[in-house]
Amino acid sequence: MNKHLYAPGHTACAGCGQSLAVRLVMDAAGKNTIVANNTGCLEVFSTKYPESAFEVPFIHSLFENAPAVASGVEAALIHLGKKEGTNIIAEAGDGGTADIGLQSLSGMWERGHDILYICYDNEAYMNTGIQRSGLTPHLANTTTSPKGQKSSGNLRFKKPIPEIANAHGIPYVATASIGYPQDIQRKVKKALSIKGPKYLQIHVPCPLGWQFAPQASVDVGKLAVETGLYPLFEYENGQLTAVRKITPKPVEEYLKSQGRFKHLLNNPEGIAQVQAVADRNIAKYGLKAENTSA
Amino acid sequence: MKEFLEGSMAVARAVALCRPGVISAYPITPQTHIVEELAQMVADGHLNAQFVNVESEHSAASVVLGGEAAGVRSYTATSSQGLFLMAEVVFNIAGMRLPIVMTDANRAISAPINIWNDQQDTISLRDSGWVQLYMEDLQETVDFHIMAYRLGEDKSIMLPVMVCMDGFILTHGIETVDMPSQEQVDKFLPPYKALYKLDVENPMTLGPLADPDYYLEARYAIHATHKKVLELLPKITAEYAKATGRSYNGLVEGYQIKDAERVLVAMGSVCGTIKDVVDELRAKGKKVGLLKVTCFRPFPAEQICGALKNVARVGIVDKSVSLGSYAPLAAEMKAAFFGRKKKPEIISSFVAGLGGRDITKESVKEMFSMLTQKEKACEYIDLKPELLKENYE
């Protein structure tokens, strides 16, 4: 077995989607890679002193500044004449990307740094106890968007970060999911082959936060894609170049796989609202397969 | 070579002589002239550095954090609100032991918004772990930027250094400055070699999580290193004197204090005004003096208490406040003297010059005059009672 650049022995929860994605990303990126990481689950469970799961240079500074730290690393490598052949990855969770870190990320995109930014999207602030983020899906139950007598959970919709990325005119924007491991690795390699800022948003189911059994992470990830709730696409220079075609399953199958949507199961109106989200994605990205096989 | 230079330009020239490879900053008055000049040097090809324009001071500090972590000497400059927006990163840089040098153009803090000078910004970050040096004039400012890199990058230190210069008074003031030559600086300041860095040939994790088993020691190590700064800085200034002919104490500097009965203690450009007043009062036979504190972090308590142990009456001039408590420098002075056998009979505290209110020679004379009276706990100098809507007496 080849040695992984993200080593075992870390303290992630069983079934952690993010941890699985990180291993895939690091192996695809290779050893000539420097990682700048925002504060979040990953840094906590992989770099508790005096141990580290990372076999590549890794820097964690703060919750929201990995894009700027990575920008400084890139500037230093250019100054040293060592940028060629070195990949720089900045990465964060969904809160660190869509909320507190969006300004720093926008700056990195706008300045055109040759950096791949990866958002590990588990759709809430898991490290602090499952609070709602800007990437929490519609009607999900979180600790700060709880279901209640007068609420069905998170009333807002996922912030369209890939569209915001595209609006910066960057050369590569894509989504991926741990439901499709080879696809993650292909997209990482492709992104790293392109000069300039890149954005990859990976859907990483969280057994603890979403309330499902740890062995189901990959299946839950697949269901999100198969229902149209998490469309997988690639944009190159602002043009949609590829989507994963699906034969859409009803969103109910996805919703019933997780405790965070349990309150919707006897709520046809809620289910319809989530179905509408999927339908919009299916139409917008042309997800529907012509043939029946997905 | 002696030149007539604006403060910001002199700083930019001094920083360029240190050959930083990564520079990042965000515009804020009155700092901006410094980085404008550096940007021009890079644009003209006179300075081989990456100049990264960012969307905030938070990112400016983060960019130089990343640059330094990758093993390249890095520089940033800011002021006031900019420093506060950076604050989280400022603490982080010190905790990660990255010897970045930053210039702060000292400016008041909002609200009310005010672009003029006091020292509230840097004083408020005194607990960040950075070495803080306060500059009296442009020559000092130039020289201490060069010494700052040498100090911070010393293998026994590895701490960032904040060179604090009074906004407008120094940044926009024009003085004759003896700029060191590139050869002198190169000889004094060798190229930066990081102890630890981001390097694919030797992968390391920087900025890990430290749990209760380790955090305390990481913080203690910085505190202990600050004590070493007190020993090393005078050695570095001595070496700098050999290299350039200009000598500094680096920690504190006494002016006419040997036989002085009344001494003001101050930081920054106001020391120049106080020296003038000392000269005038001395000419009239008054035994007055000044103790200039150059290094506020680490706090040179022994040097200060030693210099003032035989002075009867001491007045502390603070250009910042700790609202609701004692003024910052005064509080530290009183703490330093507490329990000592030889100490001044009176340690009075004066707050002056907030938000750019001029500290005139008359203001200084008033403070010296107040030192003949009973101890003042926190006396605001040049306060205009007629502007206050309520009576606070």
What do you see in this structure?
- Chain A is 36% helix and 16% strand.
- With 294 residues, chain A is of the alpha/beta class.
- Chain A has one domain (17-285): Rossmann fold (3-Layer(aba) Sandwich).
- In chain A, strands 2-1-3-4-8-7-9-10 form an eight-stranded mixed β-sheet, with helices on both faces. A two-stranded antiparallel sheet of chain A has the order 5-6.
- In chain A, a hairpin with a 2-residue loop joins β9 and β10 (239-243).
- In chain A, α1 packs across α7 (181-193) and α3 runs parallel beside α5 (102-111).
- The mean pLDDT of chain A is 97.
- With 393 residues, chain B is α/β, with parallel strands linked by helices.
- Chain B has two domains: 2-244, Thiamin diphosphate (ThDP)-binding fold, Pyr/PP domains (Rossmann fold), CATH 3.40.50.970; 252-387, Rossmann fold (3-Layer(aba) Sandwich).
- Chain B has twelve helices and 16 strands.
- Chain B has helices spanning 7-17, 32-43, 57-69, 80-95, 120-124, 138-153, 182-188, 215-244, 270-283, 301-308, 328-337, 361-370, and strands spanning 2-6, 22-25, 50-53, 74-78, 101-106, 131-134, 161-166, 174-178, 205-206, 252-255, 262-266, 288-293, 295-297, 313-318, 346-351, 379-380.
- Chain B has a seven-stranded mixed β-sheet with strand order 3-2-4-5-7-6-13, with helices on both faces. Chain B has a six-stranded mixed β-sheet with strand order 10-12-11-14-15-16, sandwiched between helices. Chain B has a two-stranded antiparallel sheet with strand order 1-8.
- In chain B, β6, α6 and β7 form a beta-alpha-beta unit.
- In chain B, α1 (7-17) crosses α2 (32-43) and α10 crosses α11 (328-337).
- Chain B is globular and about 65 Å long.
- At the A-B interface, β1, β2, α3 and α5 of A face β3, α3, α4 and β9 of B.
- β2 of chain A pairs parallel with β9 (205-206) of chain B, so a sheet runs across the interface.
